[in-house]
């Protein structure tokens, strides 16, 4: 299931990214020869109008092949070629891919908050984990905890604070269920990883309306973008140890996140989408950010960089990126076994 979810998430994020390039190219009347999802050998494809739509074997990328984009392109003189458009039009086409990833992340956050909701701080139990002390004591989902050991609790934070401090010690919970008061005794077990007391209950969730979900979505998109940028800068400057993951590492993380439900999986997909958008904006050869740098230089100079030299730089960058991906994947596999 982890692999399946990962393929679905990667596929959607890559599709969204390439669709950004595609739809902006079409809007600027650029001839698109092929829209491909995936890399490597073609699995199948079909042609509609002037564009071939294809699915390729490796679900690790995709591309939109436009006339006049490569130096060796036979359509260099195509009047609707990418190379015939203005600098600003070409920059818009390149930037549209990462932009769509940020839009997709925001949409995923908003959808998660509206459909699944956000954790509530109320004192109502959302879920009782089977086989845990709470289930053994007869506690049910929907019960409201009003007192612990005779002291009133008004929110989830109060409940967690008390239970965490009582591993191995019996506590008395006063519950409100169907307008009736019920008292139960339960002994929190000690969680081996944290040392805290836990009884196996989870907080309830509350769905948000469109406006509240949008506000929360924008806040989350901003916070995660800022966090990723700061973390990358700290890794580059050596302030923190490098901590990156490749496809194998992401598959493992997807498996861990999926255990917490659809909302967490959608949020994680949003974070991956922000990562994809940001990384593509880096001025690294073969990425969108590098192409934007070359276009900016063309705008400043008033003439384009030699296409042969630019394509050679992109090719070298692509080879280095593939080598880096191999190294990161190797590290991911080592982590799995360690």
Automatic annotation (TrEMBL):
Gene3D superfamilies: 2.30.42.10. It is found in: Membrane. Its main location: membrane. It is a multi-pass membrane protein. Residues 111-155 form the PDZ domain. It is an enzyme of class 3 (hydrolase). Its EC number is 3.4.24.-. The chain crosses the membrane at residues 92-116, 260-282, 312-330. Its cofactor is Zn(2+). GO terms for cellular component: membrane. This is Zinc metalloprotease.
């Amino acid at each position: 299931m982890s692999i399946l979810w990962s393929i679905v998430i990667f596929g959607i994020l890559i599709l969204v990214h390439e669709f950004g390039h595609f739809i902006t190219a079409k809007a600027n009347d650029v001839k698109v020869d092929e829209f491909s999802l995936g890399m490597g050998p073609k699995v199948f494809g079909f042609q509609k109008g002037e564009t071939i739509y294809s699915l390729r074997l490796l679900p690790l990328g995709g591309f939109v092949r436009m006339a006049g984009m490569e130096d060796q392109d036979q359509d260099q003189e195509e009047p609707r070629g990418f190379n015939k458009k203005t600098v600003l039009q070409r920059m818009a086409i390149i930037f549209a891919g990462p932009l769509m990833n940020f839009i997709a992340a925001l949409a995923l956050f908003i959808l998660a908050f509206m459909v699944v909701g956000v954790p509530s701080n109320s004192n109502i139990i959302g879920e009782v984990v089977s086989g845990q002390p709470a289930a053994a004591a007869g506690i049910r989902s929907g019960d409201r905890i009003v007192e612990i050991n005779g002291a009133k609790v008004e929110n989830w934070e109060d409940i967690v604070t008390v239970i965490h401090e009582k591993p191995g010690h019996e506590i008395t919970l006063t519950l409100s269920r169907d307008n009736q008061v019920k008292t139960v005794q339960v002994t929190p077990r000690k969680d081996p990883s944290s040392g805290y007391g836990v009884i196996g209950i989870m907080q309830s969730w509350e769905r948000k309306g469109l406006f509240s979900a949008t506000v929360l979505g924008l806040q989350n998109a901003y916070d995660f973008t800022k966090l990723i940028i700061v973390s990358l800068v700290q890794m580059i400057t050596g302030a923190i140890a490098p901590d990156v993951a490749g496809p194998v590492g992401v598959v493992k993380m997807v498996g861990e996140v999926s255990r917490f439900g659809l909302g967490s999986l959608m949020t994680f997909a949003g974070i991956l989408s922000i990562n994809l958008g940001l990384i593509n904006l880096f001025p690294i050869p073969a990425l969108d950010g590098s192409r934007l740098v070359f276009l900016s230089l063309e705008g400043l100079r008033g003439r384009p960089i030699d296409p042969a030299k630019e394509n050679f730089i992109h090719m070298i960058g692509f080879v280095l990126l593939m080598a880096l991906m191999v190294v990161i994947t190797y590290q991911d596999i080592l982590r799995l076994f360690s």
